[in-house]
Amino acid sequence: MLILGIDPGFAIVGFGLVETAGGKQRLVQCGAITTPAGEPLPTRLVQIADDMDLLLEQFRPDAMAIEELFFNNNITTGIGVAQARGVLLLAAERRQVPIYEYSPSQVKQAVVGYGKAEKRQVMDMTKRLLGLKHVPKPDDAADAVAIALCHARSYTSRLQRPDAARPGSGRYAVRKN
């Protein structure tokens, strides 16, 4: 199974492709979609959509795992990220790629074993679990790899049930702790 992990954003969208087979995972590729600062948000959203379409066409993932939104203090940034996230979801849905959402604590739990782990712990375990020499760069790509790894480790567990699918689409599943 090829899983596309996505760390949503509108300045930088991290992506990580992880292949899982026989209980083992390997990193296929990772990187970031970047949009120029100062460009209008609609222009940035078009670029994100176009680049996401290229990723989906090139790699044809079996699933997309994306981080749920977490609003901190900056609501303005959160709104932009939400709009970019919508574009990413739309691109995957149009290609009929099953979409799975994970909260930051679910990613930490799946990768580190502790839902309140620090970012550096998640990055270190991602590196170890995938047998990498270095943590992927930029940080957004490393986060996306961790999200893909979370799905790889969660999807094959007994916690993933058919009744976890969101109403209206059997392809859009949400796993809650």
Summarize, please:
This protein has 177 residues and is of the alpha/beta class. The protein has five helices and six strands; from the N terminus they run βββαβαβαααβ.
Mean pLDDT across all amino acids: 88
Superfamily at the CATH H level?
Ribonuclease H-like superfamily/Ribonuclease H
Residue windows where pLDDT falls under 50 for at least 5 positions: 161-177
Largest sheet: 6 strands, mixed
Provide the β-strand percentage band: 15-25%
Question: Which class of secondary structure composition applies to the elements?
Answer: alpha/beta
| CATH hierarchy class name | Alpha Beta
Number of helical stretches of at least 4 residues: 5
Strand order of the largest sheet: 3-2-1-4-5-6
Number of domains: 1
Which architecture would the CATH scheme give at its second level?
Answer: 2-Layer Sandwich
Using the coordinates shown, work out and report the CATH topology.
Nucleotidyltransferase, domain 5
Report the count of strand segments.
6
The Cα radius of gyration reads 15 Å
